[in-house]
Amino acid sequence: RLEEFLKKEVDLELSALPDFEERVIDFSEVEQLMNSINTIPAPCAPVINPQAPNAATGTSLRVCWGLFSDDTVECYQVCYKPVSNERRSDEQAEHTLKVKETYCTITNLLPNTQYEFWVSALNASGISPPSERAVYVTAPSPPTIKSKKIRSCENAALVCWESRDINPVDSYMVEL
């Protein structure tokens, strides 16, 4: 039987809906979408601002920077470490945090201490080179008045205090 079947010519005709037979696929929307997607380069290095007046407390610093290009940026990476005069300054712990804005306030710092800051910009393509490094200084902690050593008379007063800062303080302002 198989031999007889193989000798016969079989005419198969498949029927399909007319919509399917004449369907032309339009890729123009996909092509427009593909053309609109362009690769964005990694951003340029941000420019860190010098420390602004009144931008420090004894334990915090407000750091600001800018990006002077039209680069697309998703976030910024702020790095900082205490400045050390010792030779082993490279061993100082670096801290890093990510922020969306072009400024941030760093807290839990030591009073009257210099910190070195630098910033990088990030997007989907990568990370920018770091900015130049800038040194910021926290404010000294308030001195402690030695109340047992205060002396006064009609025209004068003697007030003594001591600093709790490790680093020397440049000057003090006494207000009456």
Automatic annotation (TrEMBL):
Residues 46-142 form the Fibronectin type-III domain. It comes from the Eukaryota. InterPro entries: E3_ligase_FN3/SPRY, FN3_dom, FN3_sf, Ig-like_fold. Gene3D superfamilies: Immunoglobulins. This is FSD2 protein. It comes from Oceanites oceanicus. The lineage of its organism: Eukaryota, Metazoa, Chordata, Craniata, Vertebrata. The gene is Fsd2.
